[in-house]
Write a structure and sequence with these properties.
heterodimer; A: 386 residues; mainly beta; 6-stranded antiparallel beta sheet; 6-stranded mixed beta sheet; 29 strands; 4% helix; rod-shaped; disordered C terminus; B: 399 residues; alpha+beta; 21 strands; 36% strand; disordered N terminus
Chain lengths: 386, 399
């Protein structure tokens, strides 16, 4: 997903600190007093005069000739002065006389003594710091021995903004591997600051920007967890974080396998079809089976049966069937045992020819075995019953 | 493979030193994932290049042809010793970024002699001229002259996609006091400590604030001549009256500077070579020092982000001067612009100021693009250095 390249600025949740949406407040100042002030201009900087009556802000340091302040606080005015955010291009000053106040040189202005009985000033573009709320009366005064205001105006409260907010609607939860979870959130625009878009974060790192209020997030790696949050970015900059949720991903399940063939005893040189049934683990289908016969792998594939030769005479073999999961190296297994018994030694006392038949008691029954071949004489200590 | 080879060659301790030269850094990467990216035989050197930009190379070269020809003459006297010139080994397979560690052993056919290299022409590409020294004098004829087998093992860092970055407000070399430079009483000790510090940390990119071009208050000790040229940080973007400074062992291009809120920033680019299967990259580097004016911090932060807006890969180092109350909000501006934090991100929030009892989190390294932050940590060197800030170091891998 795309990442928006616009940037965010400070959360202006307190309009006592700028910047404001409206950085230009045009107003017309009128005289605060009808009294003509005897003012000596002793400023430490000046507005330079251009070829017209426009007063232009000078970049000369150490302040400005005219101070603005709000309310009655010199602190405010000092802040404003220091902030130097006045943009005075286009400002017109009108004196009570019929002519524009125009002084040809800065030096003349700096040493001027007279009666600057200004009638109005228009076209100021003002950003006022330390605004609290509501409208403010703004005064204009000259520096000098008489600091009474000569002009004043009322400025409306600027259109400040506050940061948007975001809330995660999806709760922390545990999900299956390879699944998808819809992460949903709600955003609320701030004052004068609708939400432009959201940034989506995983583990604190921005992943993408979106105008949607949800994201179908693929599950992170199995057996891990991540933190997820969003930030709501306002159209007028500023941002707000949502809370953080944790998405935990279960581990892949282990497949199981059950061998339907039971443990049993086989005749030597016989064979047996061993069958099994596999069950996938969580999000983990069986990729293959492996069959180990007496610890040696004899089969690997997807069949669910395999024909095994009987173990050698008088031996017991382990049959180990493993169901190998597709994910996470998960293996389930089951075992049975196949065995063959020792040959039975039959001791015949007497002539072999007289033996008509031989019965062996095995598997809870007497079984007739072939007696056609001589078996000789042998002393057998672990003999079975005949 | 690496460990076993190093163990066999007795260099395990050396490697441990090189790997751990970040001091008490917090390793975010877990088990070492270092792997070889290239190996071979070049110009008589066997070599291995590792994924962290370390190149090892080793060679064996025989000097002297006795008895079929002449051996090496060790007849030049030198302070009770004798020596003979062997010449040079071939140039390394690649040029190192910093002076590498050189280990050299010698086997001689008779007597006692040992090879040593000449620091005078030691370089990033060759250990320099080698002499064979002995307590005894040997003529160089076929019966008396010595044959010498020189075994050399070199290990060090070459240009790669791994760069080590340090952010350090150096406090005008005087603990942030308004008087710039070290006083005479502590100058020698502090400068020596700083040489060792920068040298030992093998920094590829160093961003400094409250930088001053002279180390001493009498303005006679040029910073570059006295210090940085000697610790392999000779490429610079600063000025004699600079407030911010970028120093690097990489060439800096496109260097500019600007001001905001009466503070100076420095911007440069460094070119990261193709390495470990990763293509070459150009990384924008910005050294910033935000003002003390909290009301303009957001705008300043945004301005810094804008400067790097066209850099797909960017490193922003600085003393951001955010108050603790505004820390998360201010750094969050960069996080929302796609940056990752070293301090407060790759490592837990770690205060860096004031250096003797830090409680403010104002020094940080921010990265943008596919850059992985590995080893990172604040270096506690207040007593040895001369700043009111602590330096922050991070190993960055540019992918």
């Amino acid at each position: 997903m795309a990442v928006k390249k616009s940037y965010v600025a400070i959360n202006q949740d307190d309009i006592t600190s700028g910047p404001y949406l409206s950085t230009a407040i045009l107003f017309t100042a009128s005289r605060a007093s009808e009294t003509t002030k005897d003012v000596t201009i002793t400023c430490d900087a000046y507005f330079g005069f251009g070829g017209t009556s426009d007063i232009r802000y000078s970049t000369i340091s150490n302040g400005v000739i005219a101070w603005f302040w709000t309310g009655n606080s010199n602190y405010d005015s000092a802040q404003y002065k220091n902030h130097k955010t006045v943009v005075a291009s286009g400002v017109k000053w009108e004196r009570t006389s019929s002519t524009w106040g125009r002084i040809t040189t800065a030096d003349a202005w700096l040493t001027q003594k007279g009666y600057p009985d200004y009638k109005s000033a228009t076209g100021f573009s003002v950003t006022v710091k330390n605004w609290t709320s509501g409208s403010k009366t703004v005064y204009f005064q000259t520096s000098g021995p008489d600091t009474n205001a000569v002009l004043s105006a009322t400025l409306p409260c600027p259109d400040y903004y506050t940061a948007p907010t975001a809330k995660m609607d999806t709760e922390s939860q545990t999900i299956d591997p390879d699944s998808t979870i819809r992460i949903e959130w709600t955003g609320t625009g701030g004052t004068n600051n609708p939400i432009d878009y959201y940034n989506f974060f995983i583990n604190g790192n921005r992943q993408f920007s979106t105008e949607d209020d949800y994201y179908d997030m693929p599950a992170p790696a199995a057996n891990t967890s991540v933190t997820v949050k969003v930030s709501a970015i306002g159209a007028n900059y500023s941002y707000g974080w949502s809370g953080e949720i944790t998405i935990t991903v279960r581990d892949y399940g282990t497949p199981t396998v059950s061998i339907s063939t039971r443990d049993q005893e086989l005749k030597p040189d016989s064979s047996l079809l061993v069958e099994w049934v596999g069950t996938p683990g969580l999000a983990n289908p069986i990729e293959k089976y492996e069959l180990y016969y007496n610890q040696i792998k004899v089969y690997e594939g997807t069949d669910v049966s395999y024909e095994l030769e009987a173990p050698p005479v008088d031996s017991r073999y382990n049959v180990n069937v493993r169901a190998v999961g597709k994910n996470g190296n998960k293996v389930g297994q089951a075992d049975i045992y196949l065995q063959t018994k020792p040959y039975v030694w039959v001791v015949v006392n007497g002539l072999w020819k007289s033996v008509q038949s031989i019965y062996i008691f095995t598997d809870n029954e007497w079984k007739n075995v072939d007696a056609s071949e001589p078996m000789g004489i042998k002393v057998q200590t672990d003999w079975k019953g005949v | 493979m690496a460990q076993s080879y190093l163990d066999k060659t007795g260099l395990a301790a050396l490697w441990a030193k090189i790997k751990n030269y970040v001091g008490d850094a917090t390793d975010q990467s877990g088990p070492l994932s270092r792997h070889p990216v290239e190996e071979g035989l070049s110009n008589g050197w066997n070599y291995i290049k590792w994924s962290d930009g370390i190149m090892e190379c080793w060679c064996r070269k025989i000097f002297g042809k006795a008895p079929e020809g002449n051996g090496i003459a060790i007849t030049s006297g030198w302070n009770g010793h004798y020596y003979g010139n062997l010449g040079k080994l071939p140039d390394y397979p690649s040029t190192y970024l910093h002076y590498p560690e050189v280990q050299m052993t010698t086997q001689v056919t008779k007597g006692n002699a040992w090879a040593t290299y000449n620091n005078q022409d030691f370089s990033y590409s060759n250990p320099g001229s080698i002499v064979l020294a002995s307590f005894s004098s040997y003529e160089g004829n076929s019966t008396v002259g010595i044959n010498a087998t020189v075994n050399a093992h070199i290990i060090g860092k070459i240009p790669s996609n791994h760069i080590r970055v340090m952010q350090y407000n150096v406090g005008r070399w005087n603990y942030g006091n308004s008087t710039y430079g070290l006083p005479t009483s502590t100058y020698g000790e502090k400068v020596a400590n700083m040489k060792n510090f920068f040298w030992e940390h093998d920094i590829d990119l160093l961003c400094m604030e409250e930088y001053y071009h002279y180390l001493d208050q009498s303005k006679t000790k040029d910073t570059n001549t006295t210090l940085f040229n000697k610790v392999e940080l000779s490429n610079a973007n600063d000025s004699n009256n600079g407030w911010s400074s970028i120093k690097s062992s990489y060439t800096l291009t496109g260097s500019t500077s600007g001001t905001y809120q009466s503070r100076e920033y420095r911007y440069s680019k460094i070119n990261i070579p193709a390495y470990d299967g990763k293509p070459a990259k150009t990384v924008g580097v910005l050294c910033v020092h935000l003002s003390n004016n909290t009301s303009t911090h957001a705008a300043e932060m945004q301005q810094m982000i804008n400067i790097l807006a066209n850099d797909e890969y960017a490193i922003m180092c600085g003393d951001f001067n955010f108050t603790n109350e505004m820390r998360d909000q201010m750094y969050g501006i960069a996080v929302n612009a796609g940056y990752k934090l070293v301090n407060g991100g790759a490592i837990d929030w770690t205060p860096t100021w004031p250096a003797d009892d830090p409680s403010w989190y104002i020094d940080n390294i921010l990265v943008k693009g596919n850059i992985e932050i590995k080893n990172a940590g604040v270096q506690y060197v207040y007593d040895d250095m001369c700043s009111d800030h602590l330096p922050l170091v991070a190993d960055l891998y540019i992918y």
